[in-house]
Amino acid sequence: MLVKTIEWHRDTVRMIDQRLLPGREVIRTYHDYRGIARAIRSMVIRGAPAIGVAAAMAMALAIRRSAGEQARARFERAAAILKATRPTAVNLSWAIDRMRHVLEANLELNPERLYRRMRDEAIAIYHEDIEVNRALGRHGAELLDSKVNILTHCNAGALATAGYGTALGVVRAAREAGKAVRVFADETRPFLQGSRLTAWELRKDRVPVTIIADNMAASLLRTGEIDCVIVGTDRTAANGDVANKIGTYPLAVMAQRHKVPFYVAAPLSSIDLTCASGEEIPIEQRPATELTEFAGKSIAPTGVDVFNPAFDVTPAELVTAIITERGIAYPPFTKSLAQLKHSSTE
Ligand code: MRU
Predict the structure, then answer these.
(1) Do both 302 and 245 map to the same domain?
(2) Residues 226-267: pLDDT tens digits?
(3) Which of 9, 14, 127, 209 sits in a 20 to 30 Å window from 50, CA-based?
C-alpha cells in the first residue's frame, strides 16, 4: 500500500481521513487522545484492527507527562472515553487492556520513561497487526483454487488494519502465491466502505475488482460467478457467531442457499471468548444522517424515523471456516476457536 492507514510520528498520530476517500487523500494529525476518540467516532479511521491500533496510540498520549497514580487515573479516564466510541469491535478494548497491563507493570517509572514504554507498546501492536494479517492471509490463501472469484463486504483491507488487511489480506496472499484472483466488492450501504475503500485500495495494488450494489450479490451467487465469500469481523463470539458490517448476515444466508463457502477472516484479537454467543455482542447504532443524507444533501423526508445498526450477527451455522493467524477453525467453533486462542498465549 502506498498510503499508510495510521502511523506514529514524533509524539503525534497520523491517519488518512477515510471519509474523504477515494476523492481526496488527506492526512490528519492528532496530538491527544480526545482527538483520536473523535476520529474513531466520526470514521476518520475505521475497521476493527485499525481502531484497536489507534486506541493503543491514544493511551500512550493520554498518560504523557504523568506517572504513578496520576497516570493510572488519566489512563482510566481516557479508556472509558475511547471504549465508548465504537462498542462492537472488541479490538478496541483488547488493545486498551494490553496497554493497561504495560502501565500497571511500569507505574514506578518516571514520566518520560513510562511514556516511552507505552509508546513502544503501541508501536509494537501496530507492527504485530501487520504480521498477524500476513500469517492469516497465508492460511486463507491455501483454501483458494488457482483461479478464484471472491465476494467481499465492507472493507477488511489495509485501510481497516495497520496494513495488508484480513479478508483482503487473504486476497493479497493468494496473489503473492501466484493465484488469479478477482474480487467482487459489495458497495456496502450506507457508508460505502466497499465501493469507496475496498475498490480504492485494491486498484492501488492492481488487483482486479468489480463493485456491485449490495442487492446484486444474490444473483451473482445464483449464477455461479462467485467461488467463495470472504469477510472480516468486528467481534466473533466463542461459539463462532460473527458480528460484522450490516449486510454480512444476508450474504451468509445466500451463500449457504447456493452452496458457496462463507469464510470469515478473524485475527485472534477479534475473537472474544467472553461472549458465549452473538447475542451478547453489543451492536452500535450509527447517526440517522448516514441514511437520510448523501454527500451533504438530504435524500429522505425530514424527520423520518431511521434504523441504522452498523453491524449484524451471522450465526455460526452459516460459517464454513474462520481464518486466523494460527490456522483455520472449522465447526464446531466452540472447540476450534478456544484451541487456537489458547495456543496463541502459550
Ligand atoms: O463500520 P466499520 O467500517 O468500522 O466496519 C468495519 C467492518 O465491519 C469490517 O469488516 C471489520 O471491522 C473487520 S476489518 C479487518
Answers:
(1) yes
(2) 999 999 999 999 999 999 999 999 999 999 999 999 999 999
(3) 209
Q: Under 8 Å CB-to-CB from 321, ≥6 apart: which residues?
A: 143, 261, 263, 264, 328, 329, 330
For 99, the domain range is: 6-134
Say if residue 108 is in the same domain as residue 178.
Answer: no
Beta bridge partners of 78: none
Taking the C-alpha atoms of residue 125 and residue 49, their distance in angstroms, rounded to an integer, is 10
Instruction: Work out which ligand 1 atom sits closest to the CA atom of 48.
Output: 12
Q: What is the pLDDT of residue 346?
A: 45
**Signed CA dihedral, 108, 110, 115, 116: sign only:** negative
> Which of 74, 108, 134 finishes a domain?
134
pTM to 2 decimals?
0.97
Q: Per-residue confidence at 3, pLDDT binned at 50, 70, 90?
A: confident
Q: Are residues 123 and 146 in the same domain?
A: no
- Ligand 1 center from residue 192 Cα (angstroms): 12
Which pLDDT value is given to residue 242?
A: 98
Total count of domains within the chain: 2
Mutation choice for ligand 1 from 154, 268, 285, CB with most ligand atoms inside 8 A = 154
Answer yes or no: is 110 within a domain: yes
Same domain, 104 and 145: no
Q: Which amino acids bring their CB within 6 angstroms of ligand 1?
A: 46-49, 89, 154, 156, 160-161, 166, 193, 232-234, 244-245, 310
Digit-coded pLDDT (tens) for 267-321:
999 999 999 999 999 999 999 999 999 988 999 999 999 999 999 999 999 999 9
Nearby residues of 13 by Cβ (< 8 Å), 6 or more positions away = 6, 7, 29, 30, 36, 54, 57, 58, 61
Positions annotated as catalytic residues are: 234
Looking at 86, 108, 134, which one is the last position of a domain?
A: 134
**CA 14 to ligand 1 centroid distance, Å:** 20
